[in-house]
Amino acid sequence: MHWLLAADRVAPVDQLAGSVFLIETSEELPPATEVYRMLRNLGERGLLAAFPAALVGRAKAWNFDRRLTPQEKTGYAREQRAAITRAFAEYAPAAVLVFDVDLGHTDPQLIIPYGGDVRIDAVDRRISVRY
């Protein structure tokens, strides 16, 4: 995401307005501070406020080069969630955040093609996707 922002390759706010934001961290296990800063940068550009909701992939809390204990995995996931929650609270406080979705760099993994329709029902705690 940093690279896309640095290269100015992110769609303008008016093109993203009303879309659902998909976010997940990678197998590189970025620190929560870095995740917050990436989202802050989107927030400063007005991008986070364009999204009424975000689907947040369950944090991948291990890789073969960095094997975390169960307690470290839990702490890492908690820190990731806190960083994302903080950024949205500051820049898009009305957005609905859905955490621990099985998408992105995690196991098991759902395929979420971009450009489809997604509906998030926060009251009934349901997500439906039409491709």
Architecture overview:
The protein is of the alpha/beta class. Helix content is about 35%, strand content about 20%. It contains four helices and five strands; from the N terminus they run ααβαβαβββ. Strand 2, helix 4 and strand 3 form a beta-alpha-beta unit. The longest helix has 22 residues, at about 70-90. The mean pLDDT is about 90.
Overview features:
Glucose Oxidase, domain 1, 3-stranded parallel sheet, 34% helix
Q: Could you name the ranges where pLDDT drops below 50 across 5 or more consecutive residues?
A: none
CATH T-level topology: Glucose Oxidase, domain 1
| Beta-strand content | 15-25%
Instruction: Determine the CATH superfamily.
Output: LD-carboxypeptidase A C-terminal domain-like
Task: Just give the CATH class.
Answer: Alpha Beta
Give the terminus-to-terminus CA distance: 24 Å
CATH architecture: 3-Layer(bba) Sandwich
Global geometry: globular
Number of domains: 1
Q: What does the main sheet amount to?
A: 3 strands, parallel
The DSSP helix count reads 4
Task: Give the averaged pLDDT, no decimals.
Answer: 89
What's the SSE pattern? HHEHEHEEE
Number of strands: 5
- Going across the biggest sheet, name each strand in turn: 1-2-3
Which structural class do you get from the secondary structure elements? alpha/beta
Helical content band: 25-40%
